[in-house]
Amino acid sequence: MAVLTLGTVAFDTIETPFGNSGKVVGGAASYIALAVSHFVRKQHLVSVIGEDFPQAFLSELSGRGACLNGLTRVEGGESFHWSGKYHEDMVGRDTLATDLNVLIGWEPRVCKSGNNADFVMLGNLDPTVQLAVLDQVAAPKLVVLDTMNFWMDVALDNLKNIIARVDVLTVNDEEARQLTGEHFLPKAARAIHAMGPKTVVIKKGEHGALMFQDEKVFFAPAFPLEKVVDPTGAGDTFAGGFIGYLASRHEATGEVSWEDMKQAVTVGSVMASFTCEAFGTSGLQALTAEDTLRRWEEYTQLTACGPLVWPA
Amino acid sequence: MAVLTLGTVAFDTIETPFGNSGKVVGGAASYIALAVSHFVRKQHLVSVIGEDFPQAFLSELSGRGACLNGLTRVEGGESFHWSGKYHEDMVGRDTLATDLNVLIGWEPRVCKSGNNADFVMLGNLDPTVQLAVLDQVAAPKLVVLDTMNFWMDVALDNLKNIIARVDVLTVNDEEARQLTGEHFLPKAARAIHAMGPKTVVIKKGEHGALMFQDEKVFFAPAFPLEKVVDPTGAGDTFAGGFIGYLASRHEATGEVSWEDMKQAVTVGSVMASFTCEAFGTSGLQALTAEDTLRRWEEYTQLTACGPLVWPA
Question: Given CB atoms, is A91 within the 8 Å cutoff of chain B?
Fold first, then answer.
């Protein structure tokens, strides 16, 4: 069950009230691929890097089963670089720099075996690029799309075109509201269903995630961390854990059930909590299956509650 | 198992982007007492009203088992009145008027049988008033305190005095942060434990509630409503359901366990969702045990998830 991921493989420079990352490896596809590697042996990356990108990280991805034939390396180019500064609350953040570099003019190429991928994770990028990649996949079984408010502002028509073609949309609560004009999330989710996606995952960061499918709803809290070092990449880790888990279930059972979806949201949430505990990808790189399973047990206890006893 | 509640019995005038309540019955103790009445036959109210307060609502409270001997009625006085306007998001709000009226100079009197109350709910009010009431209860088994940022700004010393004497503190996330100087909630909860309360409930409104006790933690989501008509009183309904349920469990078993506390948080959350669906107390007044139990079943399904299946 191969997973194909589109997204940035890049550098981040992150400032928080508690420290600075320096220039570290980041990018949506880096987080997604690391998370996916826990669940499937075969995955494909579609991205672009400059000459400055470290071979060591690429070797780590290859070692985890990622085919990098769809990773364009631009001679003399510089990799995409994002720099941001988190507020005191470790939630709000200001962008200090967005150096698109090699992203400018990049035309994504899916390699031959990537064409046959079953699960497709379209990380947050220009909807035109997302469409170009989806057009190159022959018969995907499940497509997950991540996007953000920026594309709603500047490329709404193309965004709606790609939304119409995916199975799962992941957005945050404000984005769900902006996209639909509905404030209350059950209504916003229903409006998104009507645009195409059967399943809608609304990410609320430190407040957890809500998933809607038809009239079903599931809520996954965020793991309450003692300390958040750097939330960058948490949403991408979540997405990678989510689609990776679904791919592994499909491999085992030939389908993706609502139960699988619920478990996928919880495992994504738990994996994202590890990303928050260190700068960049380092928390996720160090993560083992045992760590994930141990915290998942703790996580499910968070909401475990016996039946009410009503007074006579 | 008698519950004694201190809080306002008052009028609210509420504006939302979707409608206006006109002048309706409100006040923390009104919501708390209505919620408590689902769980115990005997409760005491300590509050103050003016001559303008409707007898019909008092009769409803009496009919639900509330002793009103501690309810001072000021001849010629006007009841406390709060007026506010909710923002588009139905979360933020601006206060338009706070007419203290009969609250000014009021000295709370607990009646003779109220002196022996077992469970005490100190609704949000001046900590001096909360202290005066607690001093009049002989040997409470469990005391819950609600407060807000305003008292942290203007009466921090007295607030700390009352916090030191209670078993459970309920505050929202920003208030927990302000009170302790700790941003991350597990740390803030630990700092509050150190001030006295064994149990801390952090209310996050539409994002649910986190409860901490020693090193244990429990999370209760908010029920995802199709539409919020008026969130006023949701926190008080939550508190009333919480302490009412605990009182009923203590009556049945002679103790209050962590399991009881978890169930109390969930039933409080579910009852609060009914308050949000109508202006003022009307949603709560119409609520039956069957409604609560039915929604509670739906509510527990929100987070119900089978075990992860890790790929081989």
Answer: no
What average pLDDT is seen over chain A?
Answer: 97
Say yes or no: B208 contacts chain A, CB-CB below 8 A: yes
Contacts of B271 in chain A (CB under 8 A): none
Structure tokens of A165? Answer: 């073609």
Residue A88: CB atoms within 10 A of its CB come to: 11
Contacting residues for A134 by C-beta, under 8 A, at least 6 apart: A120, A122, A140, A143, A162, A165, A166
Is B182 part of the contact surface with chain A (CB cutoff 8 Å)?
no
- Looking at the partner chain, which of B226, B259, B289 has a beta carbon nearest the beta carbon of A186? B226
The runs of H, that is alpha helices, within A155-288 are 156-163, 173-180, 185-195, 234-253, 258-276, 282-285
The model carries a pTM of: 0.95
Shortest Cα distance, chain B CAs vs residue A138, angstroms? 26
Element (H, E) at A10: strand A10-16
Q: Which residue of B has its CA nearest to A262?
A: B305
Q: Which residue of A39, A184, A224 is in closest CB contact with B225?
A: A184
pLDDT per residue as tens digits for the range A60-92: 999 999 999 999 999 999 999 999 999 988 889
Contact A186 B39 (CB under 8 A): no
Could you say which residues of chain A have pLDDT below 70?
Answer: none
CA distance B106 to A106: 72
Whether A267 has its CB under 8 Å from any CB of chain B: the answer is yes
Spatial contact of B272 and B68, defined as CB atoms under 8 Å apart: no
| pLDDT per position as a tens digit, B186-245 | 999 999 999 999 999 999 999 999 999 999 999 999 999 999 999 999 999 999 999 999
Structural domains for chain A: 3-166+228-283 (3.40.1190.20)
To 10 degrees, the CA torsion angle through A36, A40, A46, A47?
40
Query: Would you say B184 and A226 are in contact if contact means Cβ atoms under 8 Å apart?
Result: yes
Q: Which helix (H) or strand (E) holds B95?
A: strand B93-99
Element (H, E) at A152: helix A149-154
Check A300 against B305: CB less than 8 A apart: yes
Helical segments of chain B, H only? 28-36, 55-63, 127-134, 149-154, 156-163, 173-180, 185-195, 234-253, 258-275, 282-285, 289-301
Among B302, B306, B308, select the one facing A293 at the smallest CB separation: B308
Q: DSSP character for A78?
A: -
> Which of A221, A226, A310 is closest, CB to CB, to B187?
A226
Spatial distance between the Cα atoms of B303 and A303, rounded to a whole number of angstroms: 7
Q: How far is B219 from chain A (nearest CA, A)?
A: 5
CB contact under 8 A, A184 and B226: yes
Query: Among residues of chain A, what percentage have pLDDT more than 90?
Result: 97
A199-203 and A168-172 as β-strands: parallel, antiparallel, unpaired?
parallel
Q: Is B204 on the interface with A (CB under 8 A)?
A: yes
Q: What is the ipTM of this complex?
A: 0.92
Strands A3-6 and A71-74: unpaired
Of A217, A248, A307, the CB nearest to B224: A217
Burial of A22 (0-12, 13-18, 19+ CB in 10 A): exposed
Question: Taking Cα atoms as reference points, which of A215, A88, A196 lies closest to residue A147?
Answer: A196
User: Between A and B, how many residue pairs show a Cβ–Cβ distance under 8 A?
Assistant: 116
